Amino acid sequence: MTLKAVELFAGAGGLAMGIGLAGFKSLAVVEWDRWACDTIRENARRGFPLVDAWPLHEGDVRGVDWATLEDEIALVAGGPPCQPFSMGGKHQAYDDARDMFPATVDVVRQLRPRAFIIENVKGLTRSSFANYYQYILLQLEFPELPRRKSETWFDHLMRLQIEKSSGKLRGQTLSYNVIPTLVNAADYGIPQKRERVFIVGFRHDLGIEWRFPAATHSEDALLFDQWVSGDYWQRHQIAPSRRPKMPERLAEKVNELRQFDLLSRLSAWRTVRDATSDLPDPEKHEEPTIADHKFQAGARSYPGHTGSPLDQPAKTIKAGDHGVPGGENMIVKLDGSVRYLTARETARVQTFPDGYVFHGSWSETMRQLGNAVPVALAKIVASSVAQAILNQEASKIAASRSAMRRAA
Hints:
- It is a single chain.
- With about 400 residues, the chain is of the alpha/beta class.
- It is built from twelve helices and 14 strands.
- The chain has helices at about 15-20, 35-45, 100-110, 130-140, 155-165, 220-225, 230-235, 250-255, 270-275, 345-350, 360-370, 375-405; strands at about 5-10, 25-30, 55-60, 75-80, 115-120, 175-185, 190-195, 195-205, 215-220, 265-270, 310, 315, 330, 340.
- A seven-stranded mixed β-sheet has the order 3-2-1-4-5-8-6, sandwiched between helices. Strands 11-13-14 form a three-stranded mixed β-sheet, with no helix packed on it.
- The longest helix is centred in the C-terminal third of the chain and has 33 residues, at about 375-405.
- It starts with a strand and ends with a helix.
- About 40% of the residues are buried.
């Protein structure tokens, strides 16, 4: 069974690539930004796997004629622009013209997919957005109850709440079981402390029971490897004399970890060093031999923008309104100095494969990377969704065959 997917707000392709790796076939990949589209086109031209077969639509998702897709769609996925809800943005939410959640709901209503995966920033869950966050979830739960022309969004929210509490809509109209989850990407082996909301929904008539994949990595395991067993430093061939001193604030925690048998623990958080140690030092190589791995001068640290320690997962890779904001997309070296992460190092942190190249200047590439969903995390989530759909389909086939045997 081939699972067909549609990708909205594709950006540089992180979520779409993870979905492809999970076994979905993309019937449409939609992105309005020219630079991001050029990145996808460049990789398609180079014959990069998955991407070379993407049907790319450059433009607004609201302008796509979805009626041309005759196949049944198993999955709609996308990350609507996060700036309306970003911790670093202007926090305008429903008053921001970039709020594309209504357009996302409209696509779900038209395509009636078996499932959807929506990714967005942690800021979406802040208390000041509580009502609008609930409004988003209810729209996705009942996509066939759109907002009326005379309604404010809040009036629509009230109507949706009444309809939900009545219980009358289930089975009478298109509806979804919606599961929102706040996730730290580091807990899934991504070398980055990236907190994001995943909103996953399954069509109610399918009867699928699903939960977000369990974490596979932990900070405790990393601290154990670094400060109890020392395996982390040995793996990177760092002699005791060259190892950093354990921060005093960790002393009590590490002492607690010494008391426990962690042989059956989760894997250790992956760090910036884990992700980038095999790349050459960009400051010593004026002509990079690896794509997008060129030194960028001008990094500086100041309050609120101190960069990512080498032996921790990176801080959240950011995009910003005007390229890289402040300097958070920096690496802190062992001597305390900082430098910007190269685009390739940043791609590693976002788990893009080395063969995937980016179109545009360093600041433009960093913007694309800051907006992207980590490929490996997208694969984990999409694989779990795909398995749930396939299990449901297998159960339906088995039930049908059993009924036929009884009838015979």
